[in-house]
Structures are given as C-alpha cells and as structure tokens.
C-alpha cells in the first residue's frame, strides 16, 4: 500500500470520527467545556487512533489491535463512569459510540473503505435520531412489533430454508418463489399500515399503493378490498389507492417491455398511455372526494397484516400459477396469446419479459405488443374480480368503473391503431 493510499484511509478514519463527534457534540452542546468525557475533537482522534492501530498490525503483530481496543475501552469506561457519577446518568450511548468509532476507524484503515463509510454514516444517523427512535418505541404497539418480527422470521429464517426448485411432476411449484410471494404480500400490507400511520389515511394509502404497484398491484387490490369490506366508509380513499397501483403497474409493464425491445415504444404507448392517464385521473378524483369521507369516518387500522389471510392469498396465487403452468402451450406465435391470457392472471412480468426478448425476431413488434397488452388486460380483469368479490359495494363500484373506462379506452385505441 503506497503512502497516498495510507493517507486516504487515515483521513477516512479521521472523517468518520469527526462526523460522529459532531453529532455527539451537538447532542451535548449545552454542557460546559470539560464537562464531557468526549467531544468533537475526542471522537475525531478516536477514529484516527483506530486507523493507526490497525495499520500497526504488520509491525506489532495480530494481537496488537485487540490489546489496543481493550486498553482504549477500559480508559473510556473509566471516564464515562466518572461522568455518570457527576451527572447521575445511566446512559451507555457515549461508551458505545466511542467503541464503534474506534472499530470503524480501524476497519477503514485495513478493510473496504465504502463499507467503513456506510457504517460511519449509519452510526451517526442512529445517534442523531435519538428522539425519533425513542418516540417510535413509545408509540409502538404490540401488534406492530409482533408483525414486524414475524415478517423478519418469514424473510430471513424460513425463506432461505425452502428449496429453490420445482417439487411437482409438472415443474410448476417452486416453494421458495411461492413463499417469496407470500413475504411480499405481508410486506406490502405492513408498508401500507405504516404509511397510513405516518402520512395519514389518504396520502398514506396512495404512497403505499404506488409502492405496491411496482411489486404487485394484485396484492394491493386484495389488501385494500379486504379493508374496504371491513370499513365500508373508507371505500373511496382505498379505491383511489387501487387505481393508483394499477396505473403504476401498467407503466412498469410497459417500461420493462420497452427497455428490452425499444421498438415496442409506439405499439405499447399508443394503447396504454390513455388508460394509465384515466386511472390516474380516477385516483385524483377519488382522492379529492375522500377528504370529506375521512373527516366523517376515518380509516382505523388495528393490525399490519394477518398471517392467516396472507397465507390464503398465497395459496390462491399458487393455484393460479399451477394452472397457468400446466395449461401453457409454449412460446410459439399461436401459443403466446392463450399463455398471456392465463399467466397474466397472476403476474404480467414473465410473459412480458419472454415476449419482449423475442420481439422483432421470432415475432413481429405489433404481435409482441398485442401479447403484452392481453397479459395486462387479463391481470386487470383478475384484479377487478378480486375488488368486486372481496370489497364493499362502494369500493367495487369505484374500482370496476375505473377499470371499465380504462379497458374500453385501450380496446378502442388497439382497434383503431391496428
């Protein structure tokens, strides 16, 4: 390692310590000079000390860094203990901040500099958001904590344990992929719950629905329809969220196809642009009118997600996926149409990806666009049926009306431009 690389790493260690020191100094800015165990300069020097100790390993041996860390921890603990006695404080944050500053500074000297920088920023952010984090914990409900922990178990404990290959004779059911869909369903429900709590009913529902539209607008429709059935007076803002997710989903589907086959820009945009705008217009009108409904009967959420309901929807998706797989007739030109109609009921991405890859080669661009539009129409039909069956009457009316208007406009444009 040349001298410039060494200096760069030591400067990073110093900068990390300085950044954490600024935050610590700001938190204790009202204290007199000399009353703190560690301030801006001290934390900057701690980061530099960690970097220097790490660089001395080739000269002092591999145990030197560990011994230096223990000696530093003992010294810092003594000063923190003295400060705690003077100010009658029981906080261990200063002690932990000093240790993490030393550790990150040492890693910055010998490890990945990007990782060290990210760790420094993360540590500073956590320290700076003390009040927000304390308020979050104070307002946290048991149902929210339980749902969050359950989602973590589903994602990082159960998901990696499942086999990532089909287990049935028809090669249709992949346990890991199916469980991933269930995790996504639960995660979108959780995000929607948090969004409503943070941003309010109307805006929170729109934010969550827009984010959900990038992943699975079918899940958004199912989740919001169930909420509308349970709380019919909130049907309007929930319907606004659903139409928003549909607009995002159609836009995402078109973007995927165009990215893989730029020649699909005109065939897809000419048919889908107007339906997307109509769905967004419906969302805007429902959003504005929902303001009065919100004041009269606000939406009340009591649980981020119910595992039993999430599993039921996951089983439904698995059944439709199985049917789509075993009834698929290949990727030849004649088989693409029924395949798009069936697979689009569950997910438009697979048929969009496979069709866009062969657009302009095995199939013509207009035909490829037709296949993608049919998949999108099948998906929207499935979501409309879910909204009608699972939602309240008002919710079903709003969503079905928006779906019908957008579908008719797409059909007219598709017929006129053929």
Overall helicity: over 70%
Question: Strand-residue fraction?
Answer: under 5%
Report on the biggest sheet: none
Distance separating the two termini: 65 Å
Shape: elongated
Rg result: 28 Å
- Give a count of the beta strands, DSSP E runs of length 2 or more: 0
Count of discrete domains: 2
Would you tell me the structural class of the helices and strands? mainly alpha
What does this structure look like?
The chain is built from 18 helices and no strands. It has 418 residues and is mainly α. It has two domains: 3-136, no CATH class; 142-417, no CATH class. Helix 11 (217-230) packs antiparallel against helix 12 (235-260) and helix 11 (217-230) packs parallel to helix 17. The chain is elongated, with a radius of gyration of 28 Å.
Brief characterization of the structure:
With 418 residues, the protein is an all-alpha fold. The chain has 18 helices and no strands.
What does the secondary structure layout of this molecule look like, with pairings?
Layout (H helix, E strand, L loop, with lengths): L2 H25 L12 H16 L1 H4 L2 H25 L5 H18 L2 H16 L1 H10 L2 H17 L16 H25 L1 H15 L1 H14 L4 H26 L4 H32 L10 H21 L5 H11 L5 H10 L6 H26 L2 H25 L1
Helix pairs in contact: 1-2, 1-5, 1-6, 2-5, 4-5, 5-6, 8-9, 9-10, 9-14, 10-11, 10-12, 11-12, 11-17, 12-13, 12-16, 12-17, 12-18, 13-17, 13-18, 15-17, 16-17, 17-18
């Amino acid at each position: 390692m040349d001298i410039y690389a060494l200096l760069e790493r030591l400067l990073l260690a110093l900068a990390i310590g300085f950044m954490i020191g600024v935050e610590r100094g700001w938190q204790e800015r009202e204290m007199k000079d000399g009353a703190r165990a560690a301030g801006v300069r001290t934390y900057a020097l701690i980061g530099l000390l960690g970097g220097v100790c790490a660089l001395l390993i080739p000269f002092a041996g591999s145990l030197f860094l560990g011994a230096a860390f223990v000696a530093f921890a003992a010294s810092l603990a003594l000063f923190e203990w003295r400060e705690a006695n003077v100010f009658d404080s029981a906080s261990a944050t200063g002690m932990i901040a000093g240790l993490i500053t030393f550790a990150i500074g040492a890693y910055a000297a010998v490890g990945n500099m990007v990782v060290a920088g990210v760790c420094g920023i993360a540590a500073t952010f956590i320290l700076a958001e003390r009040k927000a984090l304390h308020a979050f914990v104070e307002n946290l409900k048991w149902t929210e904590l339980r749902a969050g922990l359950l989602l973590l178990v589903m994602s990082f404990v159960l998901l990696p344990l499942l086999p990532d290959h089909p287990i049935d004779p028809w090669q249709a059911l992949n346990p890991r992929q199916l469980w991933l869909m269930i995790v996504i369903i639960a995660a979108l429900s959780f995000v929607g719950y948090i969004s409503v709590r943070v941003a309010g009913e109307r805006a929170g529902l729109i934010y969550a629905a827009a984010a959900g539209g990038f992943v699975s607008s079918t899940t958004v429709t199912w989740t919001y329809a169930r909420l509308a059935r349970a709380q019919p007076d909130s049907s309007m803002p929930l319907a606004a969220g659903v139409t928003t997710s549909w607009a995002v989903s159609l836009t995402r589907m078109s973007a995927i196809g165009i990215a893989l086959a730029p020649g699909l820009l005109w065939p897809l945009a000419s048919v889908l642009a107007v339906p997307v705008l109509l769905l967004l217009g419906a969302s805007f009108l429902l959003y504005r009118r929902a303001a009065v409904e919100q004041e009269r009967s606000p939406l009340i959420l009591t649980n981020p997600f119910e595992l039993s309901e999430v599993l039921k929807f996951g089983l439904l998706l698995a059944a439709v996926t199985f049917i789509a797989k075993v009834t698929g007739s290949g990727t030849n030109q004649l088989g693409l149409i029924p395949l798009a109609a069936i697979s689009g009921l569950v997910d438009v991405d697979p048929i969009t990806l496979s069709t866009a890859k062969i657009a302009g080669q095995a199939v013509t661009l207009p035909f490829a666009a037709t296949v993608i539009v049919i998949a999108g129409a099948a998906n929207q039909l499935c979501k409309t049926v879910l909204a009608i069956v699972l939602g309240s009457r008002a919710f079903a009316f709003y969503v079905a009306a928006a779906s019908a208007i957008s579908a008719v406009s797409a059909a007219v444009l598709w017929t006129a431009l053929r």
